[in-house]
Write a structure and sequence with these properties.
The structure holds three protein chains of three kinds. By secondary structure, chain B is of the alpha/beta class. Chain B is built from 15 helices and eleven strands. By secondary structure, chain C is an alpha+beta fold. In chain C, a hairpin with a 4-residue loop joins strand 15 and strand 16. Strand 1 of chain A pairs parallel with strand 2 of chain C.
Chain lengths: 98, 490, 483
Amino acid sequence: MSLTLEQVHRVAHLARIEISDAEARSTLGHLNEIFTLIEEMQAVDTQGVEPMAHAQDVAQRLRPDRISETNPVEQRAAFQAIAPETEAGLYLVPKVIE
Amino acid sequence: MIEHSLQAIARALANREISSVELTQHYLDRIDRHNPRLNAYLSVDAASSLAQASAADAQLAKGEGGPLTGIPIAHKDIFCAKGWLTTCGSRMLSNFVSPYDAAVISRFKAAGAVMLGKTNMDEFAMGSSNETSFFGPVNNPWDTSRVPGGSSGGSAAAVAARLTPAATGTDTGGSIRQPAALCNLTGLKPTYGVVSRYGMIAFASSLDQAGPLGRSAADCATLLNVMAGFDERDSTSLDRTPEDYSRELAVTTNAKPLAGLRIGLPEQFFGEGCSPEVMQLVESAITEYRKLGAETVTISLPSMTLSVAAYYVIAPAEASSNLARFDGVRYGYRAPEYQDLNELYCRSRAQGFGAEVKRRILIGTYVLSHGYYDAYYLQAQRIRRLIANDFTRAFQQCDVIVGPTSPSTAFKLGEKASDPVQMYLSDIYTIAVNLAGLPGISIPCGFAGGLPAGLQLIGDYFTEARLLNVAHRYQQANPWHLQRPTGFDD
Amino acid sequence: MKEWEVVIGIETHAQLSTQSKIFSGSSTAFGAAPNLQANAVDIALPGVLPVLNRVAVDCAIRFGLAVDAEIAARSVFARKNYFYPDLPKGYQISQYELPVVLGGELKIHVGDIEKTVHLTRAHLEEDAGKSLHEQSGHHFQGRSGIDLNRAGTPLLEIVTEPDMRSAAEAVAYARALHALLRWIGICDGNMQEGSFRCDANVSVRRVGQAQLGTRREIKNLNSFRFMQQAIEYEVQWQIATLEDGGCIEQATVLFDPGSGETRAMRTKEDAHDYRYFPDPDLLPLLIDRQWVEQIRTQMPELPTARRERLVAEYGLSPYDAKVLTASLELATYYEATVATAGRSNAKACANWVTVELAARLNKEDHEVGGSPVSARQLGELVARIADGTISTNIARKVFDALWNGDADSADEIIAKQGWHQITDHDALETLIDEVLAGNPGMVTEFRAGKEKAFNALVGQAMKATRGQANPQRVSDLLRKKLA
């Protein structure tokens, strides 16, 4: 199978990556080569095989319900010192329209 | 001193033959001199390193030092380190000074090690040549026109050129083992869950595992002793009884120290795909193993041939989601010009990520999207199960699986950069190990055309100590690992 | 209107009453200054990882047991991927294919009719942060401010089958669910603070039509009144649209309480591709029988069982039993009152709790848990009415005194005020003789056949005793004397 240019644009939008037509075209070529490699999987009959999502077959560990943070004011200052834009303790973004 | 093992350095420090400050300064000077040729380090902070060294000296003076107290260690720039620029090789994090320490960094700090600097890497660990770094490629110290391998290429080049005694790396599909092979180093990827992933910037969460890059198996054992351990902040960290990974490395007079060891040789590792000169070195190493008492048995890992295909679905799928947090809102790169929220996202991400990272995000987004999930993602997870099952069966027949680490020696910079599929096939022997979650190690096994080649040893779950012993016995008899590149002597 | 059938399903997001967040150690307390309860995990710094809060799972199990659902032995956390500034990781950790609670049902009452609403599932997930567009003093110059304090707060999303057939049924379900969640102690139910938010999926179809109509989802209904209004408006709008020959397009709509109308949100063009996949940072959640049984032993008696027991054990009317089981606190209070007053006074206790106490609590805006009059105090008061120590009228005064904290017990107040009923026969007789002697006109009128005059004499006698005589006995004695 091979992807279309339109699919590349759609996926780029889903991933929120701006992509020009020229970039999409060259990306399309690479993606199709990669998918040719990936398609090798399709020849294998995997019926009845349990999908493996984790490397270890163990259960989720649980955390006690305890508050771990002791100095939130200092912590927020440290976090927001590396933020692109903040005001009054908030992270700022262009207006969100619903 | 630059040829000393970690154990020997520790002894010298404990005996006050040298101070940690002197040692650290020595490496800082070497970095100053040689790093411009290699681009192995992304950040060095002499003042901070020397302060740590001085604290270590105080501890050593009280006789309280441990095996790594005062020893400089370089860290892959994928580990968050408080107060240090932590870029992950990306423009996206080119301004990111981490407000916290990764578990691996904390453990080295607690052990008294000195943080010598942060090493270059493929962007977000996506690459096999270190050419995808936003900060430029790393050159291989054995031939600076060649790649050091990736993604832990900076760490590998730094250790190989003796710009640090040892370094940390991470391995998602071979990113410790392949650069170890290409730079004549020993590199260990532990069993998934042995080293905490907390603070290690995620590429593919179910595959990522941190490990050591050193000059010998013995050094790697010392490093793993510090790195391994349960961490309640990582749900995938395994709560196991701590072990001493160097416990099997004691000196022996036995001429056949590996008697009784069954080495499995998978037929899939010895078919096409590997360069003849590397294969010849691998075959010689196997002969050496027989001399050490090991017996060999041919095994089969039939689904392994699909590991690259399955990996290039699973890893990008996880990455596409893991990298969604880089959106220009709370930290990291934000595009200078945008009209609205959508443009802020799309431009920050388009400009902040490099081509390979974007490519993998697109692949991952596509394979998870509606209508393709079953055919790609689920199928890849089923193949992953088949691959893991192959290993389970194989370990009923053998104790250790041996083969090449990389199909070739270091290739030329730019040689595969424009051909992603060729680049992906560099990891053809290493990827299956990550899919199964097994431990694997690469050790030097000789030179072809002046370039080092690596031998890969794969063990069953949690057999790092044995794997290190099997590597160590080979290194005792075949000291390829002591060879070092020329041009870095001063 | 008659030929249309309304079909409603409800999705509820209930914030679980934990101290810390579902995957991080930040506090979940409401009302902190922006981003003071957002730690490294909540703001999604590179490299951070989630670890599941045990109590959030306990809450899910409690809910599953309360609605008689299946608790999944193995459930899986999945990532729901989309970009939004209040979603710091670019994905929400939720459960998709394998939720923690499966099925279950809830009984609701609309008027006298009982109905069962079937639940599809309930799953654990994390809440998002908040986007603030304007705040007092800050306008951010056309920008939005992001507060991640709420990000990572544990939610239980409870999804029903499309079982409800009117706005009234939907509201009855929401109320019953709200009461149940509070009853089992997993959600504080504070709707102003967003602890209990409902989305209603509404569609209409012609009666007899098998296929469901196209639904529109009304988002974020945070009061029962708005829910009623929103659904009623939406139903009318859908019917009018269809009757005008139009068709309904699937949409997400918001209710505007100002206009009382619903309006479609700007559609997210990729809303339907969340790319769910199992979260590789979290392992499967395994819940064994032992864990479930341990939670079962901690479960309070559920409202339905409690209601039935109140009727059977105390002879209450189903109505009183329903009122008294509006909350666990109220039911507990009631039974404690009965424990003090004695079982023979159970009905009197019900009256006092549902009438006097309820009115007073309501008037002074107290929850039953914070009632100034304790269950013991009220029980003692009811006992004193029953044993004839005081009249109901005096009892109201004693209640007031207890409410104001004048004394610790009814007995103390009665003694201090000298409010004992005059039960001494001789004393009462003397008193009545005095009243008759002092009101010869009334006596004459009574004898002339005016019954009204008798009531006036009773009044005079009660006045003379400052209300402390038993009116029935006063009346009996008067009749005897005048006979």
